[in-house]
Design a protein that fits this description.
The chain is of the alpha/beta class. It contains five helices and five strands, in the order βαβαβαβαβα.
């Protein structure tokens, strides 16, 4: 199973980029993992929020493949603890035959079509984080889940 994190817009903070890259490198020790960046929309001042979500959705759909399992990182999703997330990954490794795709939406969230397409929704916190921070937090949690599954001492509980 290959795991993909699709994000809208690039990270501009070099410190966040370095942390993302470090965790992606660590995750790849356990499973194939990559982040795909969809360019941020340009000239959005004339677009409504719904129009922006629709344009982002069209760009996202181009990145999806038949057979993908789509998981939205969404504030209304299930909020697992780290150990529960590890168990969830273990189950997914047994049932996902192609790609497990996580999606971080743009500033206004996801278009309704993406909500309908998604098999699941996960929330990383009830708190709101910047899109740049959530990528790093998500990558760290995936790495943590992999170390939990491997019985390594990174996670303390």
């Amino acid at each position: 199973m290959k795991t993909i994190l699709i994000v809208v817009g690039k990270t501009t903070d070099t410190r966040m980029q370095e942390l993302e890259e470090e965790y992606i490198k660590r995750i790849n020790h356990y499973m194939p993992f990559e982040m795909e960046v969809i360019p941020k929309l340009k000239n959005t001042s004339t677009l409504s929020q719904d129009q922006q979500k629709e344009q982002e959705m069209l760009l996202i759909k181009k990145r999806l493949q038949a057979g993908d399992t789509l998981v939205l990182l969404d504030e209304h999703g299930r909020e697992p603890r780290s150990v529960e997330l590890a168990g969830w990954f273990k189950k997914k490794q047994n049932v996902v035959s192609k790609r497990l795709v996580f999606l971080v939406g743009g500033p206004y969230g996801f278009h309704d079509d993406l909500h309908r397409m998604a098999q699941e929704k996960l929330s990383l916190s009830r708190l709101t984080f910047s899109h740049q921070m959530i990528r790093m937090i998500f990558c760290e949690q995936v790495y943590r889940a992999m170390t939990i599954l491997s019985g390594e001492p990174y996670h303390h509980e």
